[in-house]
Specification:
With about 450 residues, the chain is of the alpha+beta class. Helix content is about 35%, strand content about 30%. The protein has two domains: about 1-105, Sandwich (Immunoglobulin-like), CATH 2.60.40; about 180-445, no CATH class. The chain contains ten helices and 20 strands. Strands 2, 4, 5, 7, 8 and 19 form a six-stranded mixed sheet that branches. A five-stranded antiparallel sheet has the order 11-10-13-14-15, with no helix packed on it. β7 and β8 form a beta hairpin. α4 crosses α7 (about 330-365), α7 (about 330-365) runs antiparallel to α8 (about 370-400) and α9 packs parallel to α10. It is globular. Mean pLDDT is about 75; it is low at about 270-285, about 295-310, about 325-330 and about 410-448.
């Protein structure tokens, strides 16, 4: 029986006839003949290709299957488009299943000749619709060229990181330069105000069913202002400790998140994996497995950082406002000043968000739109959010540049443990950019 199944790369471009390669490992070798089937499923679990079937003879220790030709023929026949899919590999006799995420791009261009390419670590490709993202090796010779995807290149040189955004044509659209610490702004752009608010609603935590219903009624009536003012703090809960400010621009349909990031030790998951931007793709994959197997026989699937972004998202842009780097030590005071100013503005925004959300809850309670129990539960979450958010901002701002770096290095190794302990015992985030998952678990579990 298989002990491992994996793909040589998690992307396939139309026209490739060999890649990706699927490898099945058997340890110990098979003792009988086995039948293996595979097919591509979309993220709703719907099978979109015909089955590919192969026989694994007795005595097999490993088997490699080139999938390019199969996928190319199926794409021509079924006409499925670009996006993120899941390759379901099933051993018929044992009902064992492997689910392997696979990004498909119908359009692609040659990998660009970006500056300092010798320092390129990997490309990151985002699916705008699903929100999933993949890190692709620096050796890949093409990148997707499709409006569905956003592509970034990450370079690392002498403990400094650099992000380069790439267009659909492979041209550079922004370049952060090399930095260790950076204060960045992540901008999420939506196609309409309703799309933006539905994204916020879909990623808000702690709403009672009655309050959620009142929000939906406000949205249906076109009262987007009330809906957004109520939702903002509940949307921001999972960003505690990772952002300084979150601003909602209703005129341009944008959400802007300002965060301190360690570009020299960049990890997309530090910003997005546990955040309100999305949910783990693993949840989707697990659901597909359950649908295929009836909940039984699932084996494993690769770890994939990513999330689910609500429909209507047009794009995500990352820009560096200010930073420190080892070859520009004179910028450290300016960087600390920027952090302090961002912290002051963050607390002002939080006070405003708190007051306006509370005002709406007060109004709904007075008008009988929600019960006292709804009100009390919502106010508990709202108050906990305000306390924890402001405390986390104080910690980020209060650390010197040297202490921030040391806290990150310590937290990166023991982030979950420290974050959980701090979150439960004190309701604070002590380590900027580390321990996020543990802190969030402590914050949410500690208030139940």
């Amino acid at each position: 029986m298989p002990t491992l199944a994996y793909l040589s790369r998690n992307i396939w471009a139309k026209g490739e006839l060999t890649e990706p390669k699927l490898t099945l490992l058997f340890s110990p070798p098979t003792t009988r003949s086995l039948t293996v089937t595979l097919a591509l499923h979309d993220y709703n679990g719907v099978k979109i290709t015909d089955d590919y079937t192969t026989t694994i003879p007795a005595g097999t220790a490993s088997r490699t299957i080139e999938l390019g030709d199969y996928l190319n023929a199926q794409q021509t026949a079924k006409n499925f488009g670009s996006g993120v899919y899941v390759l379901i590999v099933k051993v018929v006799e044992t009902n064992e299943v492997f689910a392997l995420p696979l990004m498909v791009t119908i359009g692609y261009v040659l990998a660009p000749d970006i500056p300092d390419k010798q320092y390129l670590q990997y490309y990151t490709v985002f699916d705008r619709v699903l929100g999933a993202y993949f890190n692709l090796p620096s050796t890949i010779n093409y990148i997707p060229s499709d409006p569905r995807f956003m592509v970034y290149a990450y370079l690392h040189k002498e403990n400094k990181g650099r992000l380069i955004g790439l267009s659909e044509l492979g041209t550079v659209v922004f370049d952060t330069g090399y930095h260790q610490l950076a204060l960045i702004t992540v901008t999420l752009s939506f196609s309409s105000l309703k799309d933006m608010i539905m994204h916020v609603l879909g990623h808000s935590y702690g709403l009672t069913p009655t309050v959620a219903q009142r929000v939906l009624e406000a949205i249906s009536a076109g009262d987007y202002d009330t809906a957004l003012k109520l939702l903002r703090p509940f949307y921001m809960i999972t960003f505690i400790g990772r952002v300084l400010t979150v601003e909602f621009d209703t005129a341009s349909y944008e959400i802007r998140l300002q965060s301190q990031v360690f570009l020299g030790q960049w990890d997309w998951g530090q910003i997005f994996q546990y955040g309100a931007i999305g949910c783990a793709v693993g949840i989707i994959v697990a659901g597909i497995i359950a649908g295929v197997t009836g909940g039984a026989g699932a084996v494993t699937f690769p770890v994939l950082l990513g999330g689910c972004i609500a429909g209507g998202l047009l794009g995500m842009v990352i820009g560096v406002r200010s930073s420190t780097s080892s070859d520009q030590p004179q910028t450290i005071p300016n960087y600390v000043k920027d952090i302090e100013e961002a912290g002051e503005r963050a607390k002002e925004l939080n006070n405003n968000y708190y007051d306006e959300a509370k005002g709406i809850l007060d109004d709904w309670l007075a008008k009988g739109k929600i019960t006292r129990d709804d009100y009390d539960k919502m106010m508990k979450v709202l108050t906990d959010w305000k306390t924890a958010m402001d405390s986390a901002i104080d910690d980020i701002v209060g650390l010197s540049t040297a202490k921030v770096t040391q806290a990150y290095n310590d937290g990166y190794r023991e982030g979950y443990k420290k974050g959980y302990e701090k979150g439960v015992s004190e309701g604070k985030m002590w380590i900027a950019g580390a321990g996020v998952a543990g802190f969030l678990a402590g914050f949410l579990l500690g208030r139940r």
